[in-house]
Specification:
The protein is α+β, with helices and mostly antiparallel strands and 527 residues long. It is built from 18 helices and 23 strands. 37% of the residues lie in helices and 22% in strands. Helix 8 (245-252) runs parallel beside helix 9 (299-309) and helix 12 (429-441) packs across helix 16 (485-501).
Length: 527
């Protein structure tokens, strides 16, 4: 399976494997050039052996090899990366779309493992675990007061499907300790956060990444929305860094007619490979909007590009990241892997949306930050396009290559300059931790509220806004939120809704005043 994702090389380190060289060889040596390359590879191998066996001091040669492999890959492109075993297992699990465990969302609060929410219909929820519970022991392993890392906690709580684990739990709301036996099971890792109605005829689907189960999740959500009579669908891939390109292709196929081009790729040795839509599309005539921003990359851009170039829908938001390279993951025996760029992809009009990377990885990844300085996130006229990379869709609409998907309808950041950091802060884990601790003070005060009653209760007070300001200060973040009060309240209130009622309610709150959603509903009224 081809992999089309944006994982920052600054997160990558690891152990070099000689197989990266050997695995690429085939046939019989037949030229001086080949022998020179072969000798160079043998030289690297011998050098490592010399250091390992003869060098005066003890040296961790794995660390030397790590520098070697990362230096080699850094000469290629920003998305050819090496992944050590410690990271590869977690990444593979995330992209697979499920894992075996007990099904809890948690964090370490005051050196105790605190349950934010049990996964709906998961093993823990079925066994009676509740939000706010503290897990003191897993079997006989003590979990509190030890400053355990998430890795060690995951290792303790995960296991084989069907295996049992006995948890000793303290329930603060009832002030009692109890033992609960849980049978581990497969826990889905959702890549589609929500499929819901924005109004009676407008559906909304949020995709957070393109994993192995994404198209399946998407089709399930789309089927549900179609049964509710939608005539318009909004696909949200904001902050979606990508994933498997096959999943993006399968989703695009739902909207395009038979034999319409979705994407094509070009590699060094293989002929151009074109992928077309099939007859299987289930939403080929309704209105389609795709929401993108500066963090929408790779597979997200394949989907947006296919919709835009086929004149199938409207792209709304800000210029996307600009990643037009395709990677293939190649595994080593030690559990590590190399993700190597094997092709470039092109949208149906023939444009590459890959932005330049000749000035190095640091400048490449910081390019998105430079858009703040150029004013691009606030004014469409500030978007830099290259006239020589101009293309036309079937209906004559002008689109551009060379660095991301430029939206058809531009929507600036919601607040004035300076709010971008606040927006990112509000979508980080710290809001979830704050809300958990506020709820933990008195869960019974919210226990019997309906969602409508909750909205009245949460909106009539500024106490949680003020408390959040103090919480940030207590945690070393000196930020004045007064100028962004409506934005802060929206995200804090949405997180309360999520922890009390579920993901759908989070989006019901947070999308109500969302600038891109407002733009879509305005555009949709004209269609």
């Amino acid at each position: 399976m081809k992999f089309d994702n944006k994982y920052l090389p600054i997160l990558i380190g690891g152990i070099f494997a000689l197989g990266i060289f050997i695995g690429s060889l085939s046939g019989t040596p037949s030229s001086k050039s080949f022998m020179t390359k072969k000798n160079t590879k043998e030289k690297l191998n011998k050098l490592i052996d010399f250091i390992d066996n003869e060098y005066v001091d003890d040296v961790n040669t794995d660390s030397i090899v790590s520098l070697t492999v990362n230096n080699i890959l850094a000469k290629l492109d920003p998305h050819s990366v090496y992944i050590p075993p410690s990271e590869q297992a977690e990444i593979a699990e995330t992209m697979k779309g499920d894992f075996v465990g007990i099904g809890i969302n948690f964090y370490m609060h005051n050196d105790s493992l605190a349950i934010i929410t049990p996964v709906k219909n998961g093993p823990s929820a079925k066994a009676g675990i509740k939000a706010g519970d503290r897990i003191l022991y897993a079997d006989k392993t003590k979990l509190f007061g030890r400053k355990l890392t998430n890795d060690s906690l995951f290792a303790t709580l995960k296991g084989e499907a069907g295996s049992q684990i006995e948890l000793t739990v303290y329930r603060k709301s009832e002030r009692k300790k109890m033992k609960i036996t849980i049978k581990r099971d497969v826990i889905p890792l959702k890549s589609v956060d929500v499929a819901m109605l924005l109004d009676k005829i407008t559906g909304y689907i949020k995709i957070n990444r393109f994993a192995g189960t994404t198209s399946q999740e998407f089709k399930k959500g789309l089927t549900s929305l179609r049964k509710q009579g939608i005539k318009t669908l909004v696909i949200d891939v904001r902050d979606n860094g990508g994933g498997y390109m096959e999943e993006a292709i399968a989703i695009a196929d739902e909207f395009l007619k038979d034999k319409e081009l979705i994407v094509f790729t070009k590699s060094k040795k293989e002929p151009t490979e074109k992928t077309y839509a099939t007859e299987q599309g289930s939403f080929e005539t309704g209105n389609v909007f795709v929401l993108i921003d500066e963090n929408s990359a790779s597979a997200s851009e394949i989907l947006a590009g296919a919709i835009q170039d086929n004149d199938r829908g409207t792209i709304v938001g800000r210029r996307s990241f600009g990643k037009g390279l395709v990677q293939r993951e190649m595994d080593f025996n030690d559990g590590s892997a190399v993700r190597l760029t094997i092709a470039r992809y092109y949208t149906p009009t023939g444009r590459s949306i890959q932005k330049p990377y000749s000035k190095g990885n640091e400048e490449y990844f910081n390019e998105s930050d430079s858009r703040f300085l150029h004013g691009e996130l606030y004014k469409k006229d500030s978007i830099k396009v290259v006239d020589s990379l101009k293309f036309k869709t079937k209906k004559g609409k002008i689109v551009y290559g060379g660095g991301g998907i430029v939206p058809d309808v531009f929507v600036p950041l919601e607040a004035e300059h300076g709010a971008e950091n606040i927006s990112y802060l509000l979508q980080s884990g710290i809001v979830g931790h704050f809300v958990f601790e506020e709820l933990d003070k008195d869960r019974n005060a919210f226990a019997k509220l309906t969602f409508e009653q909750f909205k009245v209760k949460i909106n009539e007070t500024n106490s949680y806004f003020n408390a959040f300001q103090k919480y940030l200060s207590k945690n070393g973040l000196k930020v004045n939120l007064d100028n962004y009060k409506p934005l802060v309240k929206r995200y804090v209130n949405a997180e309360f809704a999520r922890q009390l009622f579920g993901d759908t309610y989070y989006y019901e709150v947070v999308l109500k005043e969302d600038a891109m959603i407002k733009s879509v509903l305005k555009q949709n009224s004209k269609l």
